[in-house]
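Immunity protein 63 domain-containing protein, pasting as requested.
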Amino acid sequence: MKHILQKDELIKRIDTCLQMTSLPRNIYEPYIARPFQTSGFFDELSPYIQIDSNGYILIQYERGIQMLHKRTKVADEVIYWILEDTIFLTTYIDMMRKYQVDNIQTHLPNDPSIHQQIVDRVNESFRAIGGLYEQWHHEGKRASIETPAKK
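Structure tokens follow.
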């Protein structure tokens, strides 16, 4: 049986990957531990992880309702899933700052060039990380991770 990595080791590995990118640490750092919170408000469609002796439970909420509850024993899937969310979120927040919008009163322009900048920056980040995570990003593995297990 594979060794189950605990929260601190997973966070350390995620942080190491993110440090390989050009993403601003001051934006992504608060989001690295968020997937391991166990109470309070759960952000929409963000990854949450529970760890037990059998592996990892992948959890996702939409409108306050748990939409995903799926098990895996593969730590790399957990790390990748969190990287996908954190890299996109960090890129989006950085773009909001660049265009001086707050996403409440003002929003990023609905412009294909803005969308392309976000896509390019996310791809650039995964290229910097490389390896399996870059491969999974290009294969769209997030969709299969977020597909509920068949009963």
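Note for the archive: The first strand starts at residue 48 and ends at 52.
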